[in-house]
Amino acid sequence: MNSIHLLVHIYGGQDLFVNEYRTLLSDRLLLSLDYDVTRELRNLELLKLRFGESNLHYCEVMIKDITDSRRVNGLINNKLSIKKQQQGDGDDHENDVIINSFILSHIFWPSFRIETMKLPAFIQKKLDDYNKSFQEIKGMRELKWCHDLGQVQLELEVNDQILNFQVSPSRASVIWQFQNKSVWSVEDLSTELESTPSVIRRHLLYWAGQGVLCEEKEGEVFKIFEKEGMDDTYHEGGVFEEESAMSSMKSQKENDLEVVWSYVTAMLTNLGPMSLDKIHNMLSMFMLSGPGGGGGAGQSSCTVAELKACLDKKVKGQELMCTGGVYQLCKNN
């Protein structure tokens, strides 16, 4: 029995397996910031031999969207560069910002959570100019931006330190508001950014966790963190920068391990107790090797050691039992 057959068995049928593959493919493609889909295309061709082209048509369109995006994005940025040279230099903010995009055929992709938020005016102008150029190329078709799916390379100066972050446009918009006003209430900021208090609070708590903001009045007010008078609950010096630079990768790794756990649960439920090596071998073929192999930077990957740490954590939480190196679900699961 090969690995694909086992995975189809775990999911309970071919349709469920293909739908799950489509969801995982979506996550991988959106991490391919260099538009490189070589490995995913090769995997898709192999799966088409097993399941047929018609069952994987949506996945084929998704990959084509990424390859087409590379070409269209290049055309648009060339047009914008020429216009910028003809009109002369804009302000400093506009000179620093370059927009790159994935242009997706939304009916073929899994549903995305759409988070609406008002962006800084100069960023919105950039997006509007990009959209206008896209309309000129594609015959008046219009782009709908998904602010919470993008990534922004952000550099902040906090307490004489330069910190680098990679965050969503929504999260960047929240911290941008503190440039001209050092203290914001959750309510006022949600009104300013035309978003909900729960969404704004989530982003504010992220920045507080990075040591950029601090909370006041039981989390209803946030202000720029100032080093003077800080207590032992805050880290010193360059630790902020190290944690900030790794925050996006760490968050992605945590998400990956949650996906791993869902697979492990399904395998142990359907196939019974398994050793660490057997679990890893089954997972690595399908979902753990990033494009290009070896779990490159920015791609989904999980080593045997990371998988063992994840499983051992579940053992401590009494969700798994491990006897003689063989894992099985606890009976109360």
From TrEMBL:
GO MF annotation, one: ubiquitin protein ligase binding
Alphabetical list of Pfam families matching this protein: ANAPC2 (PF08672), Cullin_AB (PF26557)
Sequence ranges assigned to domain Cullin family profile in this UniProt record: 1-208
InterPro entries per UniProt: ANAPC2, ANAPC2_C, Cullin-like_AB, Cullin_homology, Cullin_homology_sf, WH-like_DNA-bd_sf, WH_DNA-bd_sf
Classification via SUPFAM superfamilies: Cullin homology domain (SSF75632), Winged helix' DNA-binding domain (SSF46785)
Annotated GO biological process: cell division; metaphase/anaphase transition of mitotic cell cycle; protein K11-linked ubiquitination; ubiquitin-dependent protein catabolic process
GO-annotated cellular components: anaphase-promoting complex
Keyword terms, alphabetized: Cell cycle, Cell division, Mitosis
Family designation: Belongs to the cullin family.
PANTHER family in the record: ANAPHASE-PROMOTING COMPLEX SUBUNIT 2
Name recorded for this polypeptide: Anaphase-promoting complex subunit 2
Organism: Amphimedon queenslandica (Sponge)
